[in-house]
Amino acid sequence: AEDTGVRVELNEEDDGKKTSIALKLWVEDPKKLKGKYKDTGAIEFTFDLVHEVPEVVAQEMVESGFFLDCDVKIVGKSIRDRVALIKWRRERTASPNG
Amino acid sequence: SPTAQVVHSAGRRFIVSPVPEARLKEQ
After folding, report:
1. How far apart are CA A43 and CA B27, in angstroms?
2. More confident residue, A1 or A57
3. Which of A58, A82, B11, B18 could serve as A8's disulfide partner, Cβ 3.0–4.6 Å?
C-alpha cells in the first residue's frame, strides 16, 4: 500500500469470522499530512468490515479533533488500504487452491 | 496507563493510547 504517513494495523488477531474488528491507527510521518498534527498517540477503534465505510470513520476522527478536515482523505485512504488487505487475506483463506 | 477515551456523537468509541516505540518508523 502507498505510504500515506498514517499507519493502520490490526489491534487484535483476525479470526476471519468477525465482521467488526479492532484497529489501531497512528501517524508515522506528520510531514505527509497537510494540516498541523497534534501528537495524540495511537487511536484504537473498531471497524465493521461489511457495513462501514473507511472515509466515514476518518470523518468521525476529524470531528473528534484528531485530525484536520484537510487530512480526511489521507486518513480514509489509510484505513481503506488496511481494510482491503484484511478482506483480501480473508478471501484467500476462505477459498483455498485446489 | 495513559489512555483516554473519546466517544464520537455517532457513538463510535476512540481510545487513545501511546504508540509502541518499536512500531514507530525507523529513520
Report:
1. 22
2. A57
3. A82
Contacts of A58 in chain B (CB under 8 A): none
Determine whether the interchain pair A42/B16 forms a contact, defined as Cβ–Cβ distance below 8 Å.
Answer: yes
* d(C-alpha B19, C-alpha A39), whole Å: 10
Residue ranges in chain A assigned as alpha helix (H): 54-63, 72-94
CB contacts < 8 A (A, B): 46
| Chain A residues near any Cβ of chain B (below 8 Å) | 7, 9, 24, 26, 28-29, 40-46, 57, 60-61, 63-66
Question: Model confidence over A11-28: pLDDT tens digits?
Answer: 999 999 999 999 999 999
A74: three-class secondary structure by DSSP: helix
Q: What is the mean pLDDT of chain A?
A: 93
With cell 479470526, the residue in question is A15
